[in-house]
Write a structure and sequence with these properties.
The chain is α/β, with parallel strands linked by helices. It has one domain: NAD(P)-binding Rossmann-like Domain (Rossmann fold, 3-Layer(aba) Sandwich), CATH 3.40.50. It has eight helices and seven strands. Helix 1 packs across helix 8, helix 2 runs parallel beside helix 3 and helix 3 runs parallel beside helix 5. The structure holds NADPH dihydro-nicotinamide-adenine-dinucleotide phosphate. Pfam families: adh_short_C2 (PF13561).
Length: 236
């Protein structure tokens, strides 16, 4: 059964990652999710892991392999923001975002794809952002980290395509989670007025795009950037 495949979602403690873990679980997949704080949904194997630490990444994969078997579908979702205008952005703001969103994703992808290549099956789904290609004032670090995931996925698609491993990007728009709850009212209203569908996105909107890309019927889709943004980024 394709739906009993093993899925790993990084950052499954809350927000989009938690919803994705629940959606894959409900579809019958065997799901593991990483967390640093909090926990993971019932019926999901929780593994503690900070993706800025290669040792923790390796340990998490060993645990998942022992409990569930090799990861066949990787959803690299964990990410952070440190928003501020360029003139005020510290090295630490830059380094934290790049080390988590970009290098952290690299660490997880490198570890996940070894068994995928061996087993001649894999689905890599990188959670980017509409901001990666659209740009956003105050998010130079975040936009740089998220646009880099497009280059990563497309290079992976070319490197691993012959091994039946696909690599795609999901680019959410404005989704209601803790990450966006901290934004000022006027910023949220400003975004809303520019979204053709006239509403903010939900975590389920994103989760179902990832579910589709992981499925057996998506095997001929690779190197794609799938927007889940109500049309906010159209044209990029
Ligand atoms: P949340 O802040 O709600 O959740 C982020 C998740 O990432 C948490 O589970 C957190 O774990 C985990 N995480 C953060 N840093 C690390 C780390 N170093 N190691 C391991 N896990 C880590 O964010 P969202 O759910 O909103 O965002 C999820 C993804 O979607 C992110 O990549 C984000 O950039 C992207 N995105 C979000 C959008 C939105 O509008 N919300 C729009 C576009 C993209 P813990 O809490 O346990 O530390």
């Amino acid at each position: 059964m394709a739906e009993s495949r093993v899925v790993l979602v990084t950052g499954g403690s809350k927000g989009i990652g938690r919803a994705m873990a629940e959606t894959f679980r409900d579809a019958g997949y065997r799901v593991a999710a990483t967390y640093r704080s909090g926990g993971v949904p019932d019926g999901v194997l929780g593994v503690t892991c900070d993706i800025t630490d290669q040792g923790q990444v390796d340990q998490a994969f060993s645990t998942i392999e022992a409990e569930l078997g090799p990861v066949e579908i990787l959803v690299a979702n964990a990410g952070v923001t440190r928003d501020t205008l360029l003139m005020r952005m510290s090295d630490e703001d830059w380094d934290t975002v790049i080390d988590t969103n970009l290098t952290g994703t690299f660490r997880v992808v490198r570890r996940a794809t070894r068994p995928m290549m061996r087993n001649r099956f894999g689905r890599v789904i990188l959670i980017s952002s509409v901001v990666g290609l659209l740009g956003s004032p105050g998010q130079i670090n975040y936009a740089a980290s998220k646009s880099a995931l497009v280059g990563m996925a497309r290079s992976l698609a070319r490197e691993l395509g012959s091994r039946n491993v696909t690599a795609n990007v999901v680019a959410p728009g404005f989704i209601e989670t803790d990450m966006t709850a901290v934004l000022p009212e006027e910023t949220i209203a400003g975004y809303k007025s520019r979204i053709p569908t006239g509403r903010l996105g939900t975590v389920d909107d994103v989760a179902h795009a990832a579910l589709f890309l992981a499925g057996e019927h998506a095997g001929y889709i690779t190197g794609a950037v799938v927007p889940v943004d109500g049309g906010l980024g159209m044209g990029h």
